[in-house]
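All the exercises in this workshop are built on plain-text protein records. A record pairs a protein's sequence with a compact description of its fold. Backbone structure tokens are a discrete shorthand for how the chain folds in space. Once this layout is familiar, the rest of the handout is easier to follow. As an example, a complete record with its sequence and its structure tokens follows.
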Amino acid sequence: VKNYFIRCVNTQRVPHALLITGPRGSGKLPLAIAFSTFLQCRDRQKDDACGHCPACRKSLQYIHPDIHYAFPVIKFDDKLKRDETFSQHFMAPWRTYLKDSPFRGYDRWLHTINAQDKPANINVKECNEIIRHLGLKTYEGQYKIQIIWKSELIGKESNRLLKLIEEPAPETVIILIADQQDQILNTIQSRCQIIAVPPFTDDDLHNFLDKTFPHHRNMADEIVHLADGNIENIYSYVEGGEEGYSEKILDWLRLAYGMQPEKLDAWVRATSAWGKHDVKMFFSYALHFCKEYLQSLHRQTTDGVKLTLKEKDTVLRLQDLLDAQQAEEITALAQHVISMIDRNLNMKVLLMSTSLRVGALLRQRHKVLS
């Protein structure tokens, strides 16, 4: 992918509109930033920006006047209505987020702006601002560049950008970044050069872990195995984002199986208090766990599954209780919970109904989870 971008610049055939897609945690945003920096560099090297010219320094501090960013935001403060808020109001936390690491992903961005329990999106005001500033002349760079991160969250409002994408001003480059390409309007996709970014290889993640978290070298194989090509998972695991989830899953299954109303109600109240983001993380982990659990059943061994030693022990403890069909049904329920959280369904009702359905599934085999 990088070589393709380099050829585009060297042959002066830079697409005016790009849609960079790929799975979560594949480094699409850092790639777009690196490409933008390369485009604006005044002393391009053979295969990278120089990193030292004034344009590079500004690009790498995220203050280049001709590189614009749009990203999902929430209401800024009490002085502005939501439909008056756009990315420019969040540039200070955005630069802090990128300087910390642009590999951390969308969930980390929501934490940065305290939006774990609020729907973030890219609104009409944002689209109008994109049209406005891309209609202006460049300040000092060769190109005017617009990066739109999580562009699937524009929705139907992206129709406003159709003409701009189809007939941009000269030396304009629009880069849309999306985890879920199918949520981008076909009319937008058809006007873009689509770049599919693959997941990271295990070697990539080993190198990243060695440079970024050298004190975790003794656990490198286990962490990389668990990350499964997703660099965001490296951060989640190293910083304890998934610590204890396997035990929490087991506790939940015990409670669901037991069908004791008071205990189940206490779990629902405690879990709903985590906040929407953390509940989504819990059920996202449940999806990962069920996937690897099914692999272990199919192989009849835990060797090769992407779980920690503690989680593999949990797998062995579950096998008398949970067969493949039940694990698949729990996977479907976890996916349903995640989609319903995004639709702002009542959290307590959602957790209780899901727990009751899981309990009914588990009791079909009349085994006790101990």
